[in-house]
Write a structure and sequence with these properties.
Blueprint: H1 18-32, H2 34-37, H3 39-69, H4 71-79, H5 89-103, H6 108-134, H7 148-152, H8 161-164, H9 167-194, H10 210-223, H11 226-244, H12 247-251, H13 263-279, H14 284-311
């Protein structure tokens, strides 16, 4: 028999909450699609909510068991220069899930305390991450698109404002996330000018779509401004096209959890497109195509994940991929 230390559960990190983020984000997109597809869109949103809820329970229970059995593995994740950023995946997934549940008719009064607590936890994670930076723990090799999750993830809070209220709180979180977004983006571009990004992290570039997409949704929810949201959609479209330019390289990679970084950004992008389709800012056909693309990719990621769990290729130790400094060409 294998030892306890060989349990796959040891390698279940908080990045697995990305599954919940993806399905919750897609559910919110289908909620917005009701204006186009009617009641059928609502049923799809309910299916997404069921998958997101089931995924959340499974990952949460497994994470609690992992914490009890492999506490040192969790502490290692929190100390890791890259993986520590995934700590924000938990509060962000809760924010998205309760927002979706409320949008589908669950009494907001029952969910509001959870939403407020998750928002407070998300802000705390942001402060924790940036405090590490101030202590000199931020190294160029640790700057990846994953850093957007804890620092810019605050922009997710306004997604719940239409059902939970607290518009002022929504503006507060939107301001924090929108301010941190260009800062992290600048650091990211400087990083890739200095160090090569590990090939296995290539799918995480899709995370760059999420900040402008969710900021645009925040503009629709808080300011009812289609103009500001359309500008954000333009930025998200730019990063979407940039990510598509690396599609050929993505096909060469073996499936792993980094591919789930594609899920929520594409869902948020399609949700913004659907929101703008109502005002005529985006063609309805384009919004429908983006929603279909996000849905197909979510289904594909889920099937690949099930296959990976069955074959034992997912819950394993991550390979160490050193970042190599880019040597300037000799003049």
């Amino acid at each position: 028999m294998g030892s306890v230390q060989e349990s796959p559960l040891r390698h279940l990190g908080p990045q697995w909450f990305a599954v919940v983020m993806g399905w919750s984000g897609l559910g919110l997109a289908w909620v917005r699609a009701q204006a186009v597809f009617g009641l059928s869109a609502r049923w799809v949103a309910v299916a997404c909510a069921c998958l997101a809820g089931a995924s959340f329970v499974l990952v949460l229970v497994a994470s609690l068991i992992r914490t009890l059995r492999f506490r040192e593995a969790l502490l290692e994740d929190l100390r890791h220069p890259v993986r520590h950023a995934f700590a924000a995946a938990f509060p962000v997934s809760v924010l998205l899930l309760v927002s979706l549940m409320a949008a589908l008719g669950v009494p907001p009064a029952a969910l509001k305390p959870i939403w407020l607590l998750a928002g407070a936890l998300q802000l705390w994670v942001t402060l924790w991450v940036m405090a590490r930076w101030l202590k000199g723990e931020l190294k160029w090799a640790a700057i990846t698109p994953v850093v957007f999750i804890p620092v810019v993830g605050n922009v997710v809070v306004p997604l719940g404002v239409p059902v939970f209220g607290h518009e002022g709180l929504g503006w507060f979180y939107l301001g924090v996330g929108a301010f941190c977004w260009p800062v992290v983006l600048a650091l990211l571009f400087v990083r890739i000018a200095q160090l090569e990004m590990p090939a296995r992290l290539a799918p995480t570039w899709f995370i760059t779509i999420a900040p402008p997409a969710v900021v645009g949704l925040g503009c629709l929810n808080l300011a009812q401004s289609a103009t500001m949201a359309l500008a954000a959609f333009g930025i998200a479209t730019f990063f979407f096209a940039l990510c598509l330019s690396s599609a050929r390289e993505l096909r060469k990679l073996s499936f792993g959890m980094p591919f789930w970084a594609m899920s929520f950004p594409l869902a948020a992008f399609s949700s913004l497109a659907m929101g703008l389709a109502d005002s005529g800012g985006v063609p309805t056909m384009l919004a429908a195509v983006l929603l279909a693309l996000a849905s197909v990719i979510l289904v594909g990621l889920s099937l690949a994940t099930i296959k990976g769990l069955r074959s034992g290729t997912l819950l394993i130790a991550e390979p160490v991929a050193p970042s190599i400094p880019v040597v300037p060409a000799a003049r």
